[in-house]
Write a structure and sequence with these properties.
With 700 residues, this protein is of the alpha/beta class. It has a domain of 232 residues: Glycogen Phosphorylase B (Rossmann fold), CATH 3.40.50. 46% of the residues lie in helices and 17% in strands. Strands 1, 2, 5, 6, 9, 10, 11, 12, 16 and 17 form a 10-stranded mixed β-sheet that branches. Strands 20-19-18-21-22-23 form a 6-stranded parallel β-sheet, sandwiched between helices. The longest helix has 30 residues. It is globular, with a radius of gyration of 27 Å. The termini are far apart.
């Protein structure tokens, strides 16, 4: 192999990676496995980020900057190595240093497991937000649970989806730092006793079940930025590792039972909730996340600013990403009233000025509610607080809407022995936003109309977005280089500057180079399909892609029916001219969503039939790529010719896959739904194919 001439910086990186391999694994580069090389490379990049983090933390603390705490049940981060190296502005240096060690940086990057911290658009939006906030040098902390086994690893067996544990942590996580010294206690169940002492109430817990929340921090670096933010992951532990008395008496199962039950809380994202145990576990997960996070937030504030709690909203804003973290509202009330000694009215004023809420859905099943009896049993003190918030709300609504019992019931936090999370957010938060113009219009004119009429200024339309770093600069380096060769690379940090590429749209040389890049990406995807599906696909065929969570409203079923119609047409007219097409699906169905899982089976059955029918001579191929996630999405968005965004109008709140595909040059075929509406406004009717009913026509 020809020796690579390295710059001083590249030589230093090479030496550092070699040192990591020696110090962490006791190996030389020649003896190390590729996984060891990846870990050494990741730790080298992490060291650079940590050095920045120390300076950044000091500066943020010194300036007293307001901080955003972004609470989300999901953060769909994808792989971090290539992204972090890009944001450190050192892709070239790492590429050459790793090449000098005898490895290809792309091969090394692919050895990283996707973090099992999310499922769909909700989590990917959260991840993109954190990248953008950090790139803009805004102090922001993402907060979620450290799910040991993620959502699940999808395996297709006989065409059916089966679920396996996602063992993404099996080789550790090179990016995280355990913070056991910052662990906090979270309580469930038991009884709460109310005492009257010195002119105010106090609350005692009896027989509560205690869980220890241990934080792990993942540093987040922005593109060419000064600040380093973090993603804080909470892991559940039992107070006692083992019951030694039970162990010594031979009762080995009972000796670790408490630990196993405690750790269930941070095992899996979205445990199946079609049974009572699953519902209870989800409720515990939600409270575990918010209680641990709120205790940490107040501790940070106290350490920096003391006990002047009225200024908390000036130094911290807590964002509730969908309804899963809504219990942060009563938990902040509990901490301020029970532990900090504030009166209800003062605590409520602080709480109302601290929280903001993003709604992500108009689907009724996703607007969470909890049985009141379960709520009271698992979270007795929180239940008391929510009931008091509801009592005061109903008093106010009686004055605003006197004797309009239907409206009051619709707006109530507690109704028909159910606790409604969205209404708790609407009754509290200083800002509420939908995630597209159409979605916000539906919220304010229909689902949340009564709350909207109470205070229109609180409601905002903020369309979801994506980070250019992940979704073009990182996943499509050839296209990035082409664009930068024409307009410079400042667009990577400022998306508005991408408009500068417009003048090259009709340039034959630019078009030819763009087509070449698209073909290269299609060849790359074809190789992946051959390796993982065992099917040859033609890179010169049209790649028609639908990749998103499997749900009936997203209409993968309609797409399959269209494929069958094309197939039948070819069978009946074998000599008809037809441009070859490869239809590609990527999707996971919720484990308990039977109809969605049957649609996956249908896709695979149709694929088997069409792919093996010699009569159509390979003019149509159908591919289902299993275990769809961020890293697979990076392959698909760069290779797609057609992007299927065909949800039932009025059901998709926004969607961001549509943006990722279009950003990489795919033509959108879709309905007037979610962000498609605003994309149409930006690109014009000639550059997007819209069909079907509008949202108001569907609702009629």
């Amino acid at each position: 192999m020809e020796k690579i001439k390295l710059t001083q910086k590249e030589a230093e990186l090479k030496k550092e990676i070699e040192g990591k391999v020696a110090r962490h694994f006791g190996k030389t580069i020649e003896d190390a496995t590729p996984k060891m090389i990846y870990t050494a490379c990741a730790l080298t990049a992490r060291d650079q980020i940590m050095a920045r983090w120390a300076v950044s933390h000091k500066e943020v603390k010194k300036e007293g900057s307001k901080k955003l705490y972004y609470l989300s049940f999901e953060f769909l981060m994808g792989r971090l190595f290539a992204s972090n190296v890009l944001n450190l502005m050192q892709t070239k240096e790492y590429t050459n240093a790793i090449a000098a060690l005898g490895y290809n940086i792309s091969d090394i990057a692919e050895l990283e497991n996707d973090a099992g911290l999310g499922n769909g658009g909700l989590g990917r939006l959260a991840a993109c937000f954190m990248d953008s906030l950090t790139t803009m040098d805004l102090p922001a902390y993402g907060c979620t649970i450290r799910y040991e086994y993620g959502l699940f690893r999808q395996k297709i067996v006989d065409g059916f989806q089966t679920e396996l544990p996602d063992t993404w942590l099996e080789n550790g996580n090179a990016w995280e730092i355990a913070r056991p010294e910052e662990a906090v206690t979270v309580r469930f169940g038991g009884k709460v006793h109310t005492d009257w002492n010195d002119g105010h109430f106090s609350f005692r817990y009896e027989n509560a079940h205690t869980i220890i929340a241990v934080p792990y921090d993942v540093p987040l670096v922005g593109y060419d930025s000064k600040i380093v933010n973090k993603l804080r992951l909470w892991s559940a532990k039992a107070p006692d590792v083992m019951d030694m008395q039970a162990f010594n008496s031979g009762d080995y199962i009972r000796s670790t039972e408490e630990r196993q039950l405690a750790e269930l809380i941070s095992k899996v994202l979205y445990p199946e909730d079609n049974h009572t145990e699953g519902k209870e576990l989800r409720l515990k997960q939600q409270y575990f996340l918010v209680s641990a996070t709120l205790q940490w937030i107040l501790r940070e504030y106290e350490d920096r600013y003391g006990y002047d709690w009225k200024n908390l909203p000036e130094k911290a804003v807590i964002h509730i990403n969908d309804t899963h973290p809504t219990l942060a509202i009563p938990e902040l009330m509990r901490l301020l009233v029970d532990e900090k000694g504030l009166g209800w009215d003062e605590a409520w004023d602080i709480t109302r000025r601290t929280f903001a809420y993003t709604n992500h859905t108009v689907m009724s099943e996703a607007l969470e509610k909890w049985p009141l009896d379960m709520f009271e049993r698992i979270l007795p003190r929180i239940s008391m607080i929510v009931q008091e918030i509801n009592r005061r709300l109903m008093e106010n609504l009686q004055m605003v809407y006197p004797n309009d019992w239907g409206k009051q019931k619709w707006m109530a936090i507690i109704s028909d022995n159910q606790v409604f999370m969205a209404n708790l957010c609407l009754a509290t938060c200083f800002a509420v936003n939908g995630v597209s113009g159409l979605h916000t219009k539906i919220l304010t004119s229909d689902i949340f109309a009564d709350y909207y009429r109470l205070d229109t200024k609180r409601f905002h339309a903020i369309t979801n977005g994506i980070t250019l770093r992940r979704w073009i600069a990182n996943c499509n380096p050839e296209l990035t280089e082409l664009i930068s060769s024409k307009i410079g690379n400042s667009w990577i940090k400022d998306y508005k500057k991408l408009e500068g590429i417009k003048k090259y749209a009709d340039d034959p040389e630019f078009q030819e180079k763009f087509a070449e890049i698209k073909h290269n990406n299609k060849v790359r995807l074809a190789k992946y399909i051959k390796k993982h599906n065992g099917i040859d696909v033609n890179p010169d065929s049209i790649f028609d892609v639908q990749a998103k969570r499997l749900h009936e409203y997203k209409r993968q079923l309609m797409n399959v029916l269209h494929i069958l119609a094309q197939y039948n047409m070819l069978i009946e007219n074998p000599d008809k001219p037809f441009t070859p097409k490869t239809y590609i699906f990527g999707a996971k169905a919720a484990p308990g969503y039977k109809r969605a899982k049957l649609i996956i089976k249908l896709i695979n059955s149709v694929a088997e039939m069409i792919n093996n029918d010699a009569r159509i001579d390979g003019k149509i191929k159908v591919i289902f790529i299993e275990n769809y996630g961020v890293s697979i999405a990076e392959l698909l968005v760069t290779a797609a010719d057609i992007s299927e965004q065909i949800s039932t109008a009025g059901k998709e709140a926004s969607g961001t896959g549509n943006m990722k595909f279009m950003l990489n040059g795919a033509v959108t075929c879709g309905t007037l739904d979610g962000a498609n509406v605003e994309m149409l406004e930006q690109v014009g009717e000639d550059n997007i194919y819209i069909f079907g009913l509008k949202a108001d026509e569907v609702a009629a």
